[in-house]
Amino acid sequence: MKYHLFGRSALRVSELCLGTMSFGTEWNWGADKKESQKIFDTYAEHGGNFVDTANRYTEGTSERWLGEFIKQERDHFVLATKFTLRDELGDPNFGGNHRKNMLRSVEESLKRLDTDFIDLLWVHAWDGTVQPDELMRNLEYLVQSGKVLHIGISDTPAWVVSQANTLADLRGWSSFVGLQIEYSLLARTPERDLLPMARQFGMAVTPWGAIAGGALTGKYLKGEAGRLPEHSARRNARANKLALKVVKVAEKLGVPPVQVAINWTRQQIPALNVIPIIGATKAVQLESSLGSVNFEIPKKYMEELDKASEIELGFPHDFLNSANVQEIMFSGRQADILKP
Fold this sequence. Notes:
By secondary structure, the protein is α/β, with parallel strands linked by helices. It has 2 domains: 3-309, TIM Barrel, CATH 3.20.20; 312-340, no CATH class. 39% of the residues lie in helices and 13% in strands. The protein is built from 12 helices and 10 strands. The protein has an 8-stranded parallel β-sheet with strand order 9-8-7-6-5-4-3-10. Strands 1-2 form a two-stranded antiparallel ribbon. A hairpin with a 6-residue loop joins β1 and β2 (12-14). It is globular. It starts with a strand and ends in a 10-residue tail after the last helix.
């Protein structure tokens, strides 16, 4: 396992992040404690040091178990957790981006994780009720307190992240160093605004859903059971066609399809620091995913996968990139002008 600098933080994290939403069986799926320990140990034995959880995962079990697993080597592991999603149903202040929920949620996460600090705190999702300057002021309070070292943001529109980071930079506050989003061959819409934004702000990107809930491994093509509804966006005709393409590329390369799906996210935009989140309900599944660090998809097959999964960027991107508009903006010399 090699290591990346996590955005502008210079924090060293492994090139794959272990997602622990599967630690616990409260949601009627996932791994029991013994198997969760095996999954964690497998990741650590391969050199992984970056683990991701959240206050909501398996009703707090994920954080509790993860806290136990890292206890003896707390400073070795880069621990990420999240706030925003509710801890208690029915109380409006037990969820959201506001300060009251943030402080309560973080304090409870620290107790479950049995640690004094969180290496990376994610805003789990944008609730649309807090002004970006207020959010960043609140997060700066946590950083100044020493309870949080770095901050990131997940599942949020690009304009919100841009405004928040710009305000933070202007006021000397901590800015978001990481962006967590859904991104895969089946979900390429972040290429419109979120990924270009991350590049401009020097943010690391930790995609979730790189294998689309298992759909891109080809298991549904073989009739295997799973948690995804039969007609979901991950199992429709387009999804099946893409899964078949991934399987065929994997066969040509002599690797499991899961590794092709993961590596596509790692390689698609070389200018970005992309660290996929991988998870599993069994240690043997994780072993397969971890093998993705041992090879790169050749350019030829990357181009085939890109073509099979391409999307329209839409306005204004397609408009600005059109030949006519390019000719007008650059006086017919667009091919001769080097762009950043």
